[in-house]
Amino acid sequence: MADHNAYYIWGEESYLIDQEIQKIIAGVAKDNGDEPEVVLVDADELSSMELGQTLEFSPLFAMSRVVILKKPAWLGKSSRKVRKTEESLQVLQDYFGHDNHGQVLILTSAEYNTSNPVTKFLNQQVRVMNIKAPLPTELEEWCKAEFSRRNIRVVPAALKRIVNSGQDMYYLENLIEKLSLIVKPDVVVGVNEIEEQLDSKQAIKVFKLTDALLNRNLKASLAAFYQLQEQGEHHLLILHMITRQILSLSKVKLYQEMGYSSGKIAEVTSQKDFVVKKIMEKSSRFSREEIRALFERLLEMDTSFKSEAKDPRILMETLLVEICSQK
Predict the structure, then answer these.
(1) Pick from 188, 203, 218: which residue ends a domain?
(2) Same domain assignment for residues 231 and 318
(3) Residues 267-297: pLDDT tens digits?
(4) Distance between CA atoms of 322 and 58, rounded to whole angstroms?
(5) In terms of domains, do 219 and 311 share one?
(6) Residues 142, 126: one domain?
(7) For every residue of 257-309, which 3-state class applies, written as one string?
(8) Please, which contacts does 308-316 make with residues 24 or more away whose CB atoms are closer than 8 Å?
(9) Which residues, in sequence order, are CB contacts of 298 under 8 Å at separation 6+?
(10) Which residues of 148-179 are buried (b: 16+ CB within 10 A; e: fewer)?
(11) In terms of residue numbers, what domain contains 117?
(12) N or C, where is the chain less crowded by C-beta within 10 Å?
């Protein structure tokens, strides 16, 4: 009999899976009258020992707890990880053999592998949910609603171009959010504006992260970073885009302190005027000494990624904390 305190959610659209996870967390909070402790684990390289430790729960420290295991490798098809799959299966069998009152377990994957022994076991133990990607008409309605929520008008042809871009919903959300900062209130977004933004795919993907870093908002920065990981973005690309943002910040701050207008700064730095204005609004959050120290730290990070066997996720989390910490 399926345990409704445990879920296996699979599908290609991470945005919709995360929306479903948030509904589950909200339901737990409502049932218990308090927010649960949420443990989010990027489980791609999670060992059976780490799995067992993650699943250990004591109600002495929290009334309720939600454990989210994102895309564990042992739910995939690779035959090279048979041993890890078997070991993880044993841990899960032991877990479901005990009373786990107060804890909700959520596992996710991009696809449902019927031949995987863990999948077969979970099928008998948990609630399995297939979150299907939206149909083109559904995606168009979602995009229209996202534009409307931000009070942006958009022509139908531009909506069609977004829907046919082949990008995932997280990317499209970032695209629409960026357009909301660029477009003036009296302007209707057309195909040309969409094409211009689609040409800068990587910048769109990391927009939420770089924007949160300029605000020195740690919670938003970590959330954006985890989202990028969910989308499969490589840590070196993320580091590169952060470096570009800090470089832009340093240039804008320099010319701003020299008394240049936003238009003049945009001209001498070859950046768009709206980008310059946004950075100028937030440049006071960083001193010149902090920016100089950040460049040194970014260089250290690049070297660490390429020469040391350290966990890139932990290194990136540490960097985000350092950037967001007000000196």
Answers:
(1) 203
(2) yes
(3) 898 887 777 888 898 888 999 999 999 999 9
(4) 32
(5) yes
(6) no
(7) HCCCCHHHHHHHHCCCHHHHHHHHHHHHHCCHHHHHHHHHHHHHHHHHHHHCC
(8) 312/235, 313/42, 313/229, 313/235, 315/235, 316/225, 316/235, 316/238, 316/239
(9) 239, 242, 243, 246, 319
(10) eeeebebeeebbebbbebebbbbbbbbbbebb
(11) 3-130
(12) N
Contact 158, 143 (CB under 8 A): no
User: How many whole angstroms separate alpha carbon 44 and alpha carbon 47?
Assistant: 9
Give the angle 68-71-74 at the CA atoms, nearest 5°: 110
Residue 71 · residue 109 · CB < 8 Å: yes
Residue 143 CA neighbour count, 13 Å, CB half? 31
The CATH number given to whatever domain includes residue 310 is 1.20.272.10
For 208-249, what is each residue's pLDDT tens digit?
888 889 989 999 899 888 888 877 778 888 888 899 889 999
Token pair listed for 2: 């399926």
Beta strands, E only, 140-280: 153-154, 188-189
- Longest Cα–Cα distance of the chain, Å, equals 70
Q: How far is CA 50 from CA 17, 81, 158, in A?
A: 24, 16, 47
